[in-house]
Design goal:
Elements lengths: L5 H18 L16 E5 L3 E7 L9 E5 L2 E8 L23 E8 L10 E5 L2 E7 L5
Antiparallel strand pairs: 1-2, 2-7, 3-4, 4-5, 6-7
Amino acid sequence: MNDPFRHLERLERELGEIAFQLTRVHFSSFGAPDHWRPAINAYRCLDCFVICVDLAGVERHTLAVRTEPYRLLISGTRPPPEPPCDDPYQAIKVMAMEINYGAFGRVVDLPEEVDPKRVRAEQRDGLLWIHLPLQEHS
């Protein structure tokens, strides 16, 4: 028996499966990691190190910066960036979620001794700038 619609029925099933795969939500891939590491740029200047940390969306009160003579430790939390529920563009489906959120931490080992008492940091334009003066030896 040669059913002329058999080929079309198979094609319809395959297209239905493809449509299902394209539209289903993969909840397992949308979760905050236990801990993420922010990106940094590190510079050695004449008498200090300067570390720039990419922390867009992180509020100052959630940050902790600790220095040791040969190490810098940065930690904090960032909330998930989501549109507000009352926004006219309220999300009805997550299409991609690539921005890390939740608890973060970063340890930077320094090749020279710094003076923890003279460290200063400032946050501007989503970046945290940390200035680590080298330890003065007499």
